[in-house]
Amino acid sequence: MDKGTPGAILLKDYRPPAHLIETVDLRFDLRDDVTTVRATLTVRRNPACAEAQDAADTVEHPPLVLDGQRLELVSVALDGRALTPDCYTVDADRLTIPHVPDAFTLETVVRIKPQENTALEGLYTSSGNYCTQCEAEGFRKITYFPDRPDVMARYSTRIEADKARYPVLLSNGNPVDSGDCPDGRHWARWEDPFPKPCYLFALVAGNLRCVEDRFRTRSGRDVALRIYVEPGNEDKVDHAMASLKRSMAWDEEVFGLEYDLDIFNIVAVSDFNMGAMENKSLNVFNTKYVLAKPETATDQDFLNIEAVVAHEYFHNWTGNRVTCRDWFQLSLKEGLTVFRDQEFSADMHSRPVKRIAEVQRLRTVQFPEDASAMAHPVRPDSYVEINNFYTPTVYDKGAEVIRMIHTLLGRERFRKGMDLYFARHDGQAVTCDDFVAAMADASGVDLAQFSLWYRQAGTPVLDVAGAYDAAARTYRLTVRQSVPPTPGQPAKQPMHIPLAMGLTGPDGRDLPLRLAGEDAAAGTGRVLEIRRAEEVFEFVDVPARPVPSLLRGFSAPVRLKTDLSDADLAFLMAHDSDAFNRWEAGQTLGTRILLGMIAGGGNGTLPDAYVRAMEALLEDAAADPAFAAQALVLPGEAYLATQMEVVDPVAIHEAREAARRALATALRPRWLATYRANAGNEPFAVDAAAIGRRALKNLSLAYLMALGDDEALGLCVGQFHGAHAMTDAIAALQFLADTDTPEREAALGAFHDRWKDEPLVMDKWFMVRATSKRADALADVTRLLAHPAFEIRNPNKVYALIGAFAGGNPVRFHAADGAGYAFLADQVLRIDPINPQVAARLMGPFSRLRRFDTGRQDLMRAQLRRIVAQSGLSPDVYEVASKSLG
Ligand code: TRP
Ligand code: ZN
Hints:
Elements: E1 9-10, E2 19-30, E3 35-45, H1 47-55, E4 64-67, E5 72-78, E6 81-82, E7 89-90, E8 94-97, E9 103-112, E10 122-126, E11 129-133, E12 153-162, E13 168-171, E14 174-180, E15 185-196, E16 203-206, E17 209-216, E18 222-229, H2 238-255, E19 263-269, E20 276-277, E21 282-286, H3 299-314, E22 323-324, H4 330-348, H5 351-370, E23 382-383, H6 392-409, H7 411-425, E24 429-430, H8 432-443, H9 452-455, E25 461-469, E26 474-482, E27 497-504, E28 526-530, E29 534-539, E30 547-550, E31 559-562, H10 566-575, H11 579-599, H12 608-619, H13 625-631, H14 637-642, H15 649-666, H16 668-677, H17 688-707, H18 710-722, H19 726-737, H20 742-755, H21 759-770, H22 777-784, H23 795-808, H24 810-813, H25 819-831, H26 836-842, H27 844-847, H28 854-868, H29 875-885
Helix pairs in contact: 2-3, 3-4, 4-5, 4-6, 5-6, 5-11, 6-7, 7-8, 10-11, 10-12, 11-15, 13-17, 15-17, 16-17, 17-18, 17-19, 18-19, 19-21, 20-21, 21-23, 25-26, 25-28, 26-29, 28-29
The structure holds tryptophan (TRP) and zinc ion.
Tryptophan binds near residues 273, 277, 311, 387 and 390.
């Protein structure tokens, strides 16, 4: 799409690096005013390129070009001799040395100012501690270097700093030496034996407390596990540590992958642009993905911590040992690592409940992106700012692509493919094609057409129709696929799609599946492979009209359209042997009903069959509370929006609230009983069963609070004040926050007073207020910008208040007068000079403007034009704004 966008980087322009770096020796002198970085690189001409050039008869050696931004160059020396300024050129983005030998040592000295670095990329300070964030292109803000992932080098790092204020000095690899300096300072040296791309470099210096544990790998290596936090937080790392040990054991068991050093460090910092970062042996985490105890963290926080700790740990093999050739291949490591962390979580908890959560996220976040101005393939062809491509498409759709390979190959052949991938590519920087080739070669499965999933953007639509012939006892499924046009890709080819399915007989049991031409039935569930625009499958020996259960487990990231009747859906809701599809049938039926209500003005009543189906789920809830808590939720506003031709956020909200009240009224005694049955004060545990019971209890309370009578209010207030666990406190607070009662103000005040010194808990308080359905939400959010606990420089705070309002409160953000849009544009313009990555991320809602009515589109466009007109705009914000304007 960017073929013509100025400044766009194109995949087709990829060239191997002209120079390779063997070793890097870094010396950091951390001072209050300025930090000095001395880098010694051993450089040699890339033999691969040299050959190509010799063949082309180029005698000239290529110039050495090193990336560097916001660096003050002090000196350059080549093979020990200082270079005079006429021997090199420096501009805002690079250092170029035109004449260099085939192999040499280069020493540069630069000065940087981490204390002034509010973009949180490169070396910066957070709560007074030094830390780094180099992915994707932050290393160039630390020193001059070929800042690209296909240049892999061995690093040694010396850190020197004031001993009292920065007692802890960390970098990648092993600590090899340390000592004191005369003037109250000290130093430490670290060596990383594994060659790595510079985006995996990390340094930490600070006043941190460490909690230590051990893990013995299955080959007998004893690994020291250390989690570093600010003093006072030592009591909140147990869960992260336990999660780390579970991840290490799981990766050995499932993939045969062992940790490869004697030390694994995690550092938690409060100012961080994303979730966490997999730097070799020194993972740096946003505090929100480390710190938890039941009083301060919700069940969802506990699950997120487990998943993110696992994700970063799994990167040690999928990302670090085998890394990306270039940033177009980002999904090589991210899609694969998300798939691995999803499988880990599924094994630790309920697999169907985990799958439901993944699909909800995919459909409410990734599908909209795939239908937006920012739509791009899992492996993009171009970008202006790579930081804008750490997207749901690269991560979550990328994980779905891996999952489909897993489905097509089966568990054993997938594992063989992984083994071959590591056998071939350990220590290399490779492409998504290399990964697919390993999978195809190890399994013998042809994945040529499948690889379109990496190249074609847009969510495919699968249209499936069934026909039963009672006389012939056959059932015919006709499957049609199409992929919608996306920016830069007007016409699409058919994809290779695994369609997992079964046929449900009248008694609710799966029928044996035998396709015409087959000798015998091969089980009751199978994966149909769709390759052409239209495919027909004929099942024989089908004794009665079945109800097809399609796309079981959401076997492909597609929009499924079927001809199932409401009665079919209610039947699957009760009987499908695939738990995911049981949930899905309820969602599809609920969506139909809600869309009908939206079309009819939003005050219809619910069909009795639907109410009875929900009642049946509720009666059965004790058997699997976690599943029931998912199945009893009406399709969300964000999902309903994806199902409308033109999104009407107000109508969606009103219809869904009306339906919630109807369901609450119809089943009130049941909700009350379910609430009471699950409200016992059992000891707090974060296992799947306990989490499920709390979820079901709080869902019951949500329905009761939809009616808002005195009894409900009493229960809610009681739960809020009596809660021991944050899950229960925040649920109650959230329901109260939607009300217009004195209890609301009292609860918000009490929560604030109790937690005002816990930043992560205050994030929840901001988020509850920002997502309140009350008409005054925007006024409240605007006021809260001046609250003492709000900090515009802290990404967590920005996401909790501004991000939560714009992305999580559609009915208020999309107010017809455009006030929400003007507010968001104001905040983007204010944050851009501070932190472009965060500012660009806030603009997500603007990039989806095409989905709305022309009135709202015009209002959003006006704000985008105001943003684009701003001088000195970052490439991050410019790219999103200009593409959204289209
Ligand atoms: N590689 C990180 C992960 O997914 C992502 C990440 C962390 C990141 N910090 C970042 C990406 C800053 C871009 C910029 O695990
Ligand atoms: Zn990752």
